[in-house]
Write a structure and sequence with these properties.
The complex is a heterodimer of chains A (about 250) and B (about 240).
Chain A: H1 46-62, E1 73-79, E2 87-98, E3 105-112, E4 115-122, E5 128-135, E6 138-139, E7 174-175, H2 206-212, H3 231-246
Parallel strand pairs in A: 6-7
Antiparallel strand pairs in A: 1-2, 1-5, 2-3, 3-4
Chain B: E1 2-5, E2 11-18, E3 22-28, H1 30-33, E4 38-46, H2 58-63, E5 68-76, E6 87-88, E7 98-104, E8 109-111, H3 113-117, E9 154-156, E10 160-172, E11 177-181, E12 192-196, E13 225-227
Classes of the chains: A alpha+beta (about 250), B mainly beta (about 240).
InterPro entries (chain A): Ribosomal_bL19 (IPR001857), Ribosomal_bL19_sf (IPR038657), Translation_prot_SH3-like_sf (IPR008991)
GO molecular function (chain A): structural constituent of ribosome
Pfam family, one (chain A): Ribosomal_L19
Protein backbone atom coordinates (compact mmCIF):
# COMPACT_ATOMS: atom_id res chain seq x y z
CA UNK A 1 0.00 0.00 0.00
CA UNK A 2 1.52 3.28 -1.01
CA UNK A 3 1.89 5.88 1.73
CA UNK A 4 1.35 9.38 0.47
CA UNK A 5 3.47 12.23 1.71
CA UNK A 6 0.44 14.17 3.02
CA UNK A 7 -0.85 11.40 5.24
CA UNK A 8 -4.16 11.35 3.35
CA UNK A 9 -5.26 8.09 1.63
CA UNK A 10 -3.77 7.76 -1.96
CA UNK A 11 -5.86 9.26 -4.77
CA UNK A 12 -8.03 6.79 -6.58
CA UNK A 13 -6.50 5.93 -9.97
CA UNK A 14 -9.19 4.59 -12.26
CA UNK A 15 -8.12 1.49 -14.24
CA UNK A 16 -6.95 2.20 -17.84
CA UNK A 17 -9.74 2.04 -20.39
CA UNK A 18 -9.74 -1.20 -22.47
CA UNK A 19 -8.58 -0.73 -26.07
CA UNK A 20 -11.19 -2.21 -28.42
CA UNK A 21 -9.92 -3.30 -31.84
CA UNK A 22 -12.97 -3.52 -34.06
CA UNK A 23 -12.38 -6.32 -36.53
CA UNK A 24 -15.95 -6.86 -37.64
CA UNK A 25 -16.43 -3.68 -39.67
CA UNK A 26 -15.35 -4.18 -43.28
CA UNK A 27 -11.95 -2.89 -44.30
CA UNK A 28 -11.66 -0.48 -47.21
CA UNK A 29 -13.14 -2.09 -50.27
CA UNK A 30 -10.50 -4.09 -52.13
CA UNK A 31 -10.16 -2.40 -55.47
CA UNK A 32 -10.06 -4.51 -58.55
CA UNK A 33 -6.62 -5.56 -59.81
CA UNK A 34 -6.65 -7.18 -63.26
CA UNK A 35 -5.34 -10.76 -62.92
CA UNK A 36 -2.71 -10.37 -65.66
CA UNK A 37 -0.70 -7.98 -63.47
CA UNK A 38 0.05 -10.68 -60.90
CA UNK A 39 3.30 -12.41 -61.91
CA UNK A 40 3.25 -16.21 -61.80
CA UNK A 41 5.59 -18.20 -59.57
CA UNK A 42 8.80 -19.00 -61.36
CA UNK A 43 12.50 -18.36 -61.73
CA UNK A 44 12.20 -15.35 -64.01
CA UNK A 45 13.80 -12.08 -63.04
CA UNK A 46 11.21 -9.71 -61.49
CA UNK A 47 12.77 -6.98 -63.67
CA UNK A 48 11.09 -8.58 -66.67
CA UNK A 49 7.66 -8.29 -65.02
CA UNK A 50 8.38 -4.71 -64.00
CA UNK A 51 9.20 -3.73 -67.57
CA UNK A 52 6.17 -5.56 -68.91
CA UNK A 53 3.97 -3.75 -66.40
CA UNK A 54 5.33 -0.41 -67.59
CA UNK A 55 4.28 -1.30 -71.13
CA UNK A 56 0.87 -2.45 -69.92
CA UNK A 57 0.33 0.80 -68.03
CA UNK A 58 1.35 2.76 -71.15
CA UNK A 59 -1.31 0.96 -73.13
CA UNK A 60 -3.92 1.46 -70.42
CA UNK A 61 -3.29 5.19 -70.41
CA UNK A 62 -4.20 5.44 -74.07
CA UNK A 63 -6.85 2.73 -74.31
CA UNK A 64 -9.38 1.97 -71.60
CA UNK A 65 -9.46 -1.68 -70.53
CA UNK A 66 -12.51 -1.94 -68.25
CA UNK A 67 -12.87 -4.14 -65.22
CA UNK A 68 -14.60 -7.40 -66.05
CA UNK A 69 -14.84 -10.94 -64.73
CA UNK A 70 -15.48 -14.37 -66.13
CA UNK A 71 -19.22 -14.47 -66.76
CA UNK A 72 -19.65 -10.83 -67.78
CA UNK A 73 -20.97 -9.95 -71.20
CA UNK A 74 -18.57 -7.94 -73.36
CA UNK A 75 -18.62 -6.34 -76.80
CA UNK A 76 -15.27 -6.04 -78.57
CA UNK A 77 -14.59 -4.03 -81.77
CA UNK A 78 -11.38 -5.02 -83.58
CA UNK A 79 -9.71 -3.71 -86.72
CA UNK A 80 -10.28 -6.19 -89.53
CA UNK A 81 -8.66 -5.55 -92.93
CA UNK A 82 -11.01 -8.00 -94.69
CA UNK A 83 -14.30 -6.46 -93.46
CA UNK A 84 -16.05 -3.75 -95.49
CA UNK A 85 -16.05 -1.33 -92.57
CA UNK A 86 -12.50 -2.35 -91.64
CA UNK A 87 -13.76 -3.13 -88.14
CA UNK A 88 -15.78 -6.02 -86.70
CA UNK A 89 -17.77 -6.20 -83.47
CA UNK A 90 -18.34 -9.35 -81.44
CA UNK A 91 -20.55 -9.73 -78.37
CA UNK A 92 -20.26 -12.67 -75.98
CA UNK A 93 -19.84 -14.03 -72.47
CA UNK A 94 -16.31 -14.13 -71.16
CA UNK A 95 -15.62 -17.79 -70.36
CA UNK A 96 -11.93 -17.65 -69.53
CA UNK A 97 -9.18 -15.15 -68.74
CA UNK A 98 -5.69 -16.49 -69.31
CA UNK A 99 -2.08 -15.45 -69.65
CA UNK A 100 -0.06 -12.95 -67.67
CA UNK A 101 1.55 -9.71 -68.73
CA UNK A 102 1.19 -8.35 -72.24
CA UNK A 103 -0.01 -11.68 -73.61
CA UNK A 104 -3.13 -11.75 -71.43
CA UNK A 105 -6.16 -13.13 -73.28
CA UNK A 106 -9.88 -13.56 -72.75
CA UNK A 107 -12.28 -15.86 -74.60
CA UNK A 108 -15.75 -14.65 -75.56
CA UNK A 109 -18.45 -17.15 -76.42
CA UNK A 110 -21.74 -16.64 -78.23
CA UNK A 111 -24.17 -18.72 -80.25
CA UNK A 112 -24.90 -17.08 -83.61
CA UNK A 113 -27.53 -18.69 -85.85
CA UNK A 114 -27.29 -22.00 -83.95
CA UNK A 115 -23.50 -22.10 -84.30
CA UNK A 116 -21.39 -21.72 -81.15
CA UNK A 117 -18.53 -19.28 -81.72
CA UNK A 118 -15.62 -18.63 -79.37
CA UNK A 119 -13.07 -15.91 -80.04
CA UNK A 120 -9.87 -15.49 -78.01
CA UNK A 121 -8.81 -11.82 -77.83
CA UNK A 122 -5.56 -10.40 -76.50
CA UNK A 123 -6.18 -7.59 -74.04
CA UNK A 124 -3.17 -5.54 -75.15
CA UNK A 125 -3.35 -6.16 -78.89
CA UNK A 126 -3.30 -2.87 -80.84
CA UNK A 127 -5.97 -4.19 -83.22
CA UNK A 128 -8.63 -3.96 -80.53
CA UNK A 129 -10.39 -0.62 -80.91
CA UNK A 130 -12.94 -0.79 -78.09
CA UNK A 131 -13.97 -3.07 -75.24
CA UNK A 132 -17.38 -2.38 -73.67
CA UNK A 133 -18.79 -4.21 -70.73
CA UNK A 134 -22.48 -4.69 -71.44
CA UNK A 135 -23.23 -6.54 -68.22
CA UNK A 136 -20.77 -6.80 -65.36
CA UNK A 137 -21.32 -9.86 -63.21
CA UNK A 138 -19.49 -12.80 -61.73
CA UNK A 139 -20.35 -16.47 -61.79
CA UNK A 140 -19.79 -19.30 -59.37
CA UNK A 141 -16.75 -20.58 -61.30
CA UNK A 142 -13.66 -18.94 -62.72
CA UNK A 143 -13.73 -20.98 -65.92
CA UNK A 144 -16.93 -21.43 -67.87
CA UNK A 145 -15.62 -23.88 -70.45
CA UNK A 146 -18.50 -26.20 -69.55
CA UNK A 147 -20.83 -23.90 -71.48
CA UNK A 148 -19.67 -25.82 -74.55
CA UNK A 149 -21.50 -28.89 -73.25
CA UNK A 150 -24.44 -26.96 -71.82
CA UNK A 151 -27.68 -26.24 -73.63
CA UNK A 152 -27.13 -23.44 -76.16
CA UNK A 153 -29.61 -21.13 -74.43
CA UNK A 154 -27.04 -20.51 -71.67
CA UNK A 155 -24.41 -19.25 -74.14
CA UNK A 156 -26.65 -17.11 -76.36
CA UNK A 157 -26.20 -13.41 -75.91
CA UNK A 158 -28.22 -10.87 -77.87
CA UNK A 159 -25.90 -9.13 -80.32
CA UNK A 160 -27.79 -5.84 -80.04
CA UNK A 161 -27.92 -5.90 -76.27
CA UNK A 162 -27.87 -2.52 -74.54
CA UNK A 163 -25.39 -1.99 -71.72
CA UNK A 164 -26.95 -2.67 -68.33
CA UNK A 165 -26.60 0.46 -66.16
CA UNK A 166 -24.73 -0.05 -62.92
CA UNK A 167 -23.90 2.18 -59.97
CA UNK A 168 -20.25 2.45 -59.01
CA UNK A 169 -20.60 1.61 -55.35
CA UNK A 170 -22.73 -1.51 -55.83
CA UNK A 171 -21.11 -4.84 -55.23
CA UNK A 172 -20.56 -6.95 -58.30
CA UNK A 173 -23.56 -9.31 -58.57
CA UNK A 174 -22.84 -13.04 -58.56
CA UNK A 175 -25.07 -14.93 -60.96
CA UNK A 176 -25.82 -18.21 -59.19
CA UNK A 177 -27.45 -19.85 -62.19
CA UNK A 178 -27.15 -23.65 -62.33
CA UNK A 179 -26.64 -24.57 -65.94
CA UNK A 180 -28.35 -27.59 -67.48
CA UNK A 181 -26.18 -29.77 -69.68
CA UNK A 182 -26.66 -31.63 -72.92
CA UNK A 183 -26.64 -35.43 -72.58
CA UNK A 184 -23.24 -37.03 -72.13
CA UNK A 185 -20.58 -37.42 -73.68
CA UNK A 186 -19.10 -34.06 -72.78
CA UNK A 187 -15.78 -32.61 -73.89
CA UNK A 188 -14.46 -32.99 -70.34
CA UNK A 189 -15.82 -34.96 -67.39
CA UNK A 190 -17.12 -31.91 -65.58
CA UNK A 191 -18.53 -33.93 -62.68
CA UNK A 192 -15.01 -34.83 -61.49
CA UNK A 193 -13.79 -32.94 -58.42
CA UNK A 194 -10.63 -31.63 -60.13
CA UNK A 195 -12.67 -29.05 -62.02
CA UNK A 196 -14.57 -28.12 -58.87
CA UNK A 197 -17.54 -26.73 -60.78
CA UNK A 198 -20.37 -25.26 -58.81
CA UNK A 199 -22.44 -23.83 -61.62
CA UNK A 200 -23.81 -27.02 -63.21
CA UNK A 201 -27.05 -28.74 -62.25
CA UNK A 202 -25.87 -32.32 -62.56
CA UNK A 203 -28.78 -34.54 -63.49
CA UNK A 204 -26.63 -37.68 -63.34
CA UNK A 205 -27.65 -40.62 -61.14
CA UNK A 206 -26.24 -40.68 -57.62
CA UNK A 207 -23.91 -43.63 -58.20
CA UNK A 208 -22.21 -41.79 -61.07
CA UNK A 209 -21.59 -38.74 -58.88
CA UNK A 210 -20.17 -40.99 -56.14
CA UNK A 211 -17.96 -42.78 -58.69
CA UNK A 212 -16.61 -39.42 -59.83
CA UNK A 213 -15.53 -38.64 -56.24
CA UNK A 214 -13.03 -41.50 -56.56
CA UNK A 215 -10.74 -39.05 -58.42
CA UNK A 216 -10.85 -36.48 -55.66
CA UNK A 217 -7.50 -35.40 -54.17
CA UNK A 218 -8.44 -34.01 -50.75
CA UNK A 219 -4.80 -33.58 -49.75
CA UNK A 220 -4.24 -30.87 -52.38
CA UNK A 221 -5.75 -28.07 -50.32
CA UNK A 222 -3.31 -28.79 -47.48
CA UNK A 223 -0.24 -28.92 -49.75
CA UNK A 224 1.92 -26.04 -48.59
CA UNK A 225 4.22 -26.04 -51.60
CA UNK A 226 1.27 -25.18 -53.80
CA UNK A 227 0.35 -22.10 -51.79
CA UNK A 228 1.02 -18.85 -53.59
CA UNK A 229 0.20 -15.91 -51.38
CA UNK A 230 -0.19 -12.93 -53.65
CA UNK A 231 -1.44 -10.39 -51.10
CA UNK A 232 1.87 -8.55 -50.66
CA UNK A 233 2.70 -8.67 -54.37
CA UNK A 234 -0.78 -7.38 -55.13
CA UNK A 235 -0.40 -4.46 -52.73
CA UNK A 236 2.88 -3.42 -54.30
CA UNK A 237 1.48 -3.65 -57.79
CA UNK A 238 -1.64 -1.73 -56.80
CA UNK A 239 0.49 1.06 -55.38
CA UNK A 240 2.64 1.13 -58.50
CA UNK A 241 -0.43 1.20 -60.75
CA UNK A 242 -2.14 4.01 -58.86
CA UNK A 243 1.05 6.10 -58.92
CA UNK A 244 1.63 5.60 -62.61
CA UNK A 245 -1.96 6.16 -63.69
CA UNK A 246 -2.17 9.43 -61.81
CA UNK A 247 0.80 10.87 -63.70
CA UNK B 1 9.58 -13.96 -73.64
CA UNK B 2 7.04 -11.30 -74.52
CA UNK B 3 4.72 -10.44 -77.39
CA UNK B 4 5.48 -7.44 -79.55
CA UNK B 5 3.16 -5.92 -82.15
CA UNK B 6 4.05 -4.19 -85.42
CA UNK B 7 2.24 -1.16 -86.84
CA UNK B 8 0.25 -3.44 -89.15
CA UNK B 9 -1.09 -5.43 -86.20
CA UNK B 10 1.07 -8.57 -86.52
CA UNK B 11 2.33 -10.21 -83.37
CA UNK B 12 5.89 -11.46 -82.88
CA UNK B 13 7.37 -13.24 -79.88
CA UNK B 14 10.44 -11.62 -78.42
CA UNK B 15 13.12 -12.82 -75.95
CA UNK B 16 14.60 -10.38 -73.44
CA UNK B 17 18.36 -10.54 -72.94
CA UNK B 18 20.01 -8.53 -70.17
CA UNK B 19 23.58 -7.22 -70.55
CA UNK B 20 24.87 -7.63 -67.02
CA UNK B 21 28.31 -6.24 -66.07
CA UNK B 22 30.11 -7.02 -69.34
CA UNK B 23 33.71 -5.85 -69.50
CA UNK B 24 36.50 -6.29 -72.03
CA UNK B 25 39.22 -8.32 -70.29
CA UNK B 26 42.15 -8.70 -72.65
CA UNK B 27 43.34 -8.00 -76.15
CA UNK B 28 45.05 -10.88 -77.96
CA UNK B 29 46.78 -9.87 -81.19
CA UNK B 30 46.60 -11.86 -84.42
CA UNK B 31 50.17 -13.19 -84.10
CA UNK B 32 49.74 -14.19 -80.45
CA UNK B 33 46.57 -16.18 -81.03
CA UNK B 34 47.67 -17.63 -84.38
CA UNK B 35 44.28 -16.99 -85.96
CA UNK B 36 43.24 -14.78 -88.86
CA UNK B 37 42.02 -11.83 -86.77
CA UNK B 38 42.74 -10.29 -83.41
CA UNK B 39 40.68 -11.47 -80.45
CA UNK B 40 39.08 -9.69 -77.55
CA UNK B 41 38.34 -11.61 -74.34
CA UNK B 42 35.08 -10.42 -72.83
CA UNK B 43 33.65 -11.43 -69.45
CA UNK B 44 30.08 -11.17 -68.29
CA UNK B 45 28.12 -11.29 -65.02
CA UNK B 46 30.07 -10.73 -61.81
CA UNK B 47 30.68 -13.74 -59.63
CA UNK B 48 32.26 -14.45 -56.27
CA UNK B 49 36.10 -14.44 -56.27
CA UNK B 50 36.29 -17.07 -53.55
CA UNK B 51 35.26 -20.09 -55.56
CA UNK B 52 38.21 -20.08 -57.95
CA UNK B 53 42.00 -20.31 -57.35
CA UNK B 54 44.17 -17.16 -57.36
CA UNK B 55 45.75 -18.11 -60.68
CA UNK B 56 42.39 -17.66 -62.38
CA UNK B 57 42.08 -14.11 -61.05
CA UNK B 58 45.04 -12.73 -63.01
CA UNK B 59 43.09 -11.71 -66.09
CA UNK B 60 40.51 -9.90 -63.99
CA UNK B 61 43.12 -8.16 -61.88
CA UNK B 62 44.91 -6.83 -64.97
CA UNK B 63 41.68 -5.41 -66.34
CA UNK B 64 40.66 -4.06 -62.95
CA UNK B 65 37.36 -5.84 -62.91
CA UNK B 66 35.64 -8.27 -60.45
CA UNK B 67 35.70 -11.95 -61.31
CA UNK B 68 33.30 -12.81 -64.12
CA UNK B 69 31.27 -15.96 -64.41
CA UNK B 70 31.92 -16.51 -68.12
CA UNK B 71 34.75 -15.44 -70.42
CA UNK B 72 34.28 -15.62 -74.21
CA UNK B 73 36.34 -14.56 -77.21
CA UNK B 74 35.20 -12.35 -80.04
CA UNK B 75 37.13 -12.16 -83.30
CA UNK B 76 37.58 -8.48 -84.11
CA UNK B 77 39.21 -6.51 -86.89
CA UNK B 78 42.10 -4.22 -85.99
CA UNK B 79 40.02 -1.04 -86.12
CA UNK B 80 37.54 -2.37 -83.57
CA UNK B 81 40.00 -3.00 -80.73
CA UNK B 82 38.82 -1.79 -77.34
CA UNK B 83 40.96 -1.09 -74.30
CA UNK B 84 40.68 -3.83 -71.63
CA UNK B 85 38.51 -2.74 -68.73
CA UNK B 86 35.87 -0.86 -70.75
CA UNK B 87 32.31 -1.83 -69.89
CA UNK B 88 30.03 -2.98 -72.68
CA UNK B 89 26.38 -1.96 -72.75
CA UNK B 90 23.20 -3.02 -74.52
CA UNK B 91 23.38 0.19 -76.59
CA UNK B 92 26.19 -1.50 -78.55
CA UNK B 93 23.35 -2.98 -80.60
CA UNK B 94 20.69 -0.96 -82.38
CA UNK B 95 17.10 -1.87 -83.29
CA UNK B 96 16.82 -3.21 -86.82
CA UNK B 97 20.13 -5.07 -86.55
CA UNK B 98 20.41 -8.82 -86.95
CA UNK B 99 22.12 -10.91 -84.35
CA UNK B 100 23.30 -14.47 -83.66
CA UNK B 101 22.76 -15.78 -80.14
CA UNK B 102 24.79 -18.68 -78.74
CA UNK B 103 24.10 -20.48 -75.48
CA UNK B 104 24.25 -23.89 -73.86
CA UNK B 105 21.00 -25.77 -74.51
CA UNK B 106 18.91 -27.16 -71.67
CA UNK B 107 20.50 -30.40 -70.49
CA UNK B 108 18.19 -33.39 -70.76
CA UNK B 109 20.56 -36.00 -69.34
CA UNK B 110 20.95 -39.47 -70.76
CA UNK B 111 18.22 -39.88 -73.35
CA UNK B 112 17.13 -42.64 -75.63
CA UNK B 113 17.25 -42.66 -79.37
CA UNK B 114 13.61 -41.62 -79.92
CA UNK B 115 13.93 -38.33 -78.01
CA UNK B 116 17.53 -37.62 -78.88
CA UNK B 117 17.51 -38.29 -82.62
CA UNK B 118 13.81 -38.49 -83.46
CA UNK B 119 13.75 -42.17 -84.40
CA UNK B 120 10.29 -43.62 -84.90
CA UNK B 121 10.73 -46.64 -82.63
CA UNK B 122 8.49 -49.66 -83.04
CA UNK B 123 4.67 -50.18 -82.88
CA UNK B 124 3.04 -50.45 -79.48
CA UNK B 125 1.25 -53.73 -80.20
CA UNK B 126 0.93 -56.41 -82.90
CA UNK B 127 3.38 -58.82 -81.32
CA UNK B 128 6.32 -56.52 -80.42
CA UNK B 129 8.27 -58.20 -77.61
CA UNK B 130 9.90 -55.65 -75.32
CA UNK B 131 10.76 -53.40 -78.30
CA UNK B 132 9.00 -50.06 -78.49
CA UNK B 133 11.65 -47.31 -78.35
CA UNK B 134 14.79 -49.17 -79.43
CA UNK B 135 17.02 -48.12 -82.33
CA UNK B 136 16.53 -51.35 -84.30
CA UNK B 137 19.35 -52.14 -86.72
CA UNK B 138 22.59 -50.17 -86.30
CA UNK B 139 24.46 -51.14 -89.48
CA UNK B 140 24.35 -53.38 -92.54
CA UNK B 141 25.87 -56.82 -93.06
CA UNK B 142 28.46 -55.83 -95.63
CA UNK B 143 29.82 -52.93 -93.61
CA UNK B 144 30.93 -55.41 -90.90
CA UNK B 145 31.33 -52.49 -88.50
CA UNK B 146 29.35 -49.66 -86.96
CA UNK B 147 30.18 -46.30 -88.56
CA UNK B 148 31.61 -43.49 -86.49
CA UNK B 149 28.98 -41.01 -85.49
CA UNK B 150 26.16 -43.56 -85.46
CA UNK B 151 23.13 -42.03 -83.77
CA UNK B 152 22.75 -43.85 -80.46
CA UNK B 153 21.44 -43.05 -76.97
CA UNK B 154 23.58 -40.71 -74.89
CA UNK B 155 23.72 -37.42 -73.00
CA UNK B 156 21.46 -34.88 -74.71
CA UNK B 157 21.59 -31.11 -74.40
CA UNK B 158 23.99 -28.93 -72.42
CA UNK B 159 25.95 -28.10 -75.59
CA UNK B 160 26.52 -24.79 -77.29
CA UNK B 161 24.06 -24.00 -80.06
CA UNK B 162 23.41 -20.81 -82.02
CA UNK B 163 20.22 -19.23 -83.34
CA UNK B 164 21.11 -17.23 -86.44
CA UNK B 165 19.62 -14.11 -87.92
CA UNK B 166 17.50 -12.83 -85.01
CA UNK B 167 16.20 -9.30 -85.41
CA UNK B 168 16.74 -6.81 -82.61
CA UNK B 169 13.39 -5.06 -82.05
CA UNK B 170 14.06 -2.82 -79.09
CA UNK B 171 16.80 -1.76 -76.70
CA UNK B 172 16.33 -0.50 -73.15
CA UNK B 173 19.38 1.59 -72.28
CA UNK B 174 18.40 2.16 -68.65
CA UNK B 175 18.26 -1.53 -67.71
CA UNK B 176 20.54 -2.76 -70.57
CA UNK B 177 18.00 -5.10 -72.15
CA UNK B 178 18.00 -6.30 -75.76
CA UNK B 179 14.68 -7.50 -77.24
CA UNK B 180 15.55 -10.22 -79.74
CA UNK B 181 13.06 -11.84 -82.14
CA UNK B 182 12.05 -15.46 -81.61
CA UNK B 183 13.50 -17.91 -79.13
CA UNK B 184 17.03 -18.40 -77.94
CA UNK B 185 18.76 -21.63 -76.78
CA UNK B 186 19.16 -22.12 -73.03
CA UNK B 187 17.05 -22.05 -69.90
CA UNK B 188 15.73 -18.90 -68.17
CA UNK B 189 18.50 -16.70 -66.76
CA UNK B 190 21.29 -18.58 -68.51
CA UNK B 191 24.42 -16.90 -69.92
CA UNK B 192 24.24 -16.08 -73.59
CA UNK B 193 26.67 -14.74 -76.23
CA UNK B 194 25.30 -12.18 -78.69
CA UNK B 195 27.19 -11.40 -81.88
CA UNK B 196 26.46 -9.53 -85.10
CA UNK B 197 24.95 -11.93 -87.60
CA UNK B 198 27.29 -13.76 -89.98
CA UNK B 199 24.51 -14.63 -92.44
CA UNK B 200 25.16 -13.25 -95.95
CA UNK B 201 21.62 -11.78 -96.24
CA UNK B 202 22.24 -9.49 -93.28
CA UNK B 203 25.79 -8.47 -94.23
CA UNK B 204 24.84 -4.84 -94.98
CA UNK B 205 22.13 -4.45 -92.40
CA UNK B 206 23.95 -2.26 -89.91
CA UNK B 207 23.33 1.30 -90.99
CA UNK B 208 25.21 3.25 -88.36
CA UNK B 209 26.22 1.01 -85.52
CA UNK B 210 28.18 2.50 -82.61
CA UNK B 211 31.75 1.63 -83.61
CA UNK B 212 33.80 0.16 -81.92
CA UNK B 213 31.21 0.16 -79.12
CA UNK B 214 28.87 2.43 -77.18
CA UNK B 215 30.84 4.37 -74.57
CA UNK B 216 28.75 5.48 -71.60
CA UNK B 217 30.98 8.42 -70.70
CA UNK B 218 30.82 9.80 -74.26
CA UNK B 219 28.74 12.75 -75.38
CA UNK B 220 25.88 10.74 -76.87
CA UNK B 221 22.67 10.92 -74.84
CA UNK B 222 20.39 8.07 -75.78
CA UNK B 223 16.67 7.94 -74.82
CA UNK B 224 15.66 5.23 -72.36
CA UNK B 225 14.02 3.06 -75.05
CA UNK B 226 15.14 2.62 -78.64
CA UNK B 227 12.49 1.11 -80.90
CA UNK B 228 12.57 -0.31 -84.40
CA UNK B 229 10.53 1.70 -86.94
CA UNK B 230 7.92 -1.02 -87.40
CA UNK B 231 7.08 -1.53 -83.73
CA UNK B 232 3.68 -0.38 -82.52
CA UNK B 233 4.32 2.09 -79.71
CA UNK B 234 1.88 1.84 -76.84
CA UNK B 235 1.59 5.63 -76.77
CA UNK B 236 -0.15 5.55 -80.19
CA UNK B 237 -3.90 4.91 -80.54
CA UNK B 238 -5.14 1.51 -81.73
CA UNK B 239 -4.31 0.27 -85.21
CA UNK B 240 -6.90 0.97 -87.91
CA UNK B 241 -6.78 -0.28 -91.47
CA UNK B 242 -7.63 2.54 -93.85
Amino acid sequence: CRVSSDGKPPKFQPPPKPVIIDRKTKKEESRFLSPEFIPPRGRKDPLKYYIERKDMIQRRKVFNIPEFYVGSILAVTTANPLASDKSSRFVGICIQRGGTGLGATFVLRNVIEDQGVEICYELYSPRIQAIEVLKLEKRLDENLMYLRDALPEYSTVDVNMKPVPRMDHEEIPVNKVQVRMKPKPWSKRWERPKYNIKGIKFELPEHKMQAAQKWSQPWLEFDMLREYDTSKIEEKIRKELSEELEK
Amino acid sequence: MMPIWTKSGEKHAVTLLKVQDCHVLRYVSKEESGGKTAKLLVGGKNASPFSKPESAHEIFREAGVPRKQKVTTFNVTDDAIIKPGTPLYAAHFRPGQFVDVTAKTIGKGFQGVVKRWGFKGQPASHGQTKTHRRPGAISTNQAAKVYRGKKMPGKMGNIYRTSFGLKVWRINTKHDIIYVNGSVPGHTNCLVKVRDSKLPTYKDCNKNPPFPTFFADGDEELPEDLFDEEIFQFTDPSVTFA
